[in-house]
Amino acid sequence: MRITPLTAHIGAAVEDVDITAPLDETTRTSLRAALCRRAVLVFRNQALTDAQQVTFTKALGPLEPTIPSDPIGDGGPIGVLTNIDAEGHIIPPDDKRVLYAVANTLWHSDGAFRRVPLRGSVLAAKVIPPTGGDTEFASLTAPYALLPAARKTEIADLAVEHSMAHSRAQIAPDLMSEEFLNATPPVVHPLVRTVAETGERALLVGSYAGKIIGWPSEKGAELLRELLEWCTQPQFVYCHRWRTDDLLVYDNRCCLHRGRAWDRAAHARVLHRTTLAGDDSLKAQCPSSP
Ligand SMILES: [Fe+2]
User: Fold this and answer.
1) What is the mean predicted confidence (pLDDT) over 272-277?
2) Rounded to the nearest whole angstrom, what is the distance from the C-alpha of residue 81 to the centroid of ligand 1?
3) Which of 68, 101, 173, 227 is deepest in the core (most CB within 10 A)?
4) Between 187 and 175, the higher pLDDT residue
5) pTM of this prediction?
6) pLDDT reading at 284 higher than 80
7) 273 alpha carbon to ligand 1 midpoint, in Å?
8) CB of 113 within 8 A of CB of 248?
9) Measured in angstroms, how far is the CA atom of residue 65 from the centroid of ligand 1?
10) What is the distance in A from the centroid of ligand 1 to the CA of 110?
11) What is the SS3 string spanning the chain?
């Protein structure tokens, strides 16, 4: 197996490994370590069934099922990101289901709105549009390391409120069902967290982050905007141009991501997602959490 960095700060290509087959312990350990260090792992030409994707995901850590009331899931292991309906027709771009998914074009860390955020995600490309629909990934560790020392001191103990509602409200009102709103109340996380395996610090920002606890809302929103801009500068970003049968794994603690636009009215785009469960360590890292 060969692991080759794709940019200075983020991303690695993983080659000469067949992830449709069971992985030995050495391979699994290497992949887990590379995921923490590079944040995004790119595998090409891996035509996995859903069952194989679940097995591969579990080789990297405990799997987290989808939330039953989430439009992309049914409580099972696979979340389907798609703009085609059950009959294979393209869903109109102004349909609520598509607008809900448009929020994926905002920079985010999967599951940051959960009490225990998701550790990682695995995306398998089933149908890819001829142009557009790329996914960009931005490091959260390198930008933190390169912050001025005074900034690090200023933000060290801040806590941030995250919610699914804050993300969806940036796209259109009333995108969330009552049931899903109730299932995803706001949560509070530290602004800076430590990645246990590497000891690196990472910023926890993105579209779910709404306010800084104890700060006036405009001042908090401004700092969150500024940090998001800092993290998403080109030198911290890897842009993935999808091909069918690509499989990407990313560590949600170490990077943000966003989907890019494509002609949603003309072309299908279908990705199957599985997710890796987080652990409770974040709560202990959040001194100002209520
Ligand atoms: Fe996402």
Assistant:
1) 97
2) 9
3) 227
4) 187
5) 0.95
6) no
7) 9
8) no
9) 15
10) 5
11) CEEEECCCCCCEEEECCCCCCCCCHHHHHHHHHHHHHHCEEEECCCCCCHHHHHHHHHHHCCEECCCCCCCCCCCCCCEEEECECCCCCECCCCCHHHHHHHHHHCCECCCCCCCCCCCEEEEEEEECCCCCCCEEEEECCHHHHCCCHHHHHHHCCCEEEECHHHHHHCCCCCCCCHHHHHHCCCEEEECEEECCCCCCEEECCCCCEEEECCCCHHHHHHHHHHHHHHHCCHHHEEEECCCCCCEEEEECCCEEEEECCCCCCCCCCEEEEEEECCCCHHHHCCCCCC
- Asked whether the beta carbons of 268 and 133 are under 8 A apart, the reply is no
Side chain identity at 79, as an amino acid letter?
G
In order of their start, the domains of the chain are 2-284 (3.60.130.10)
Residues 6+ apart with CB under 8 A from 95: none
Range in 78-92, 163-177, 179-193 with the lowest mean pLDDT: 163-177
Confidence of residue 2 (pLDDT cuts 50, 70, 90): very high
123: CA distance to ligand 1 center in Å? 9
Share the mean pLDDT of the chain: 94
* Res 55 pLDDT > 70: yes
Amino acid at the residue 282: L
Query: Is residue 91 packed enough to be buried (19+ CB in 10 Å), middle (13-18) or exposed (0-12)?
Result: middle
Q: How confident is the model at residue 34 (pLDDT cuts 50, 70, 90)?
A: very high
Q: Are strands 135-139 and 255-259 parallel, antiparallel or unpaired?
A: antiparallel
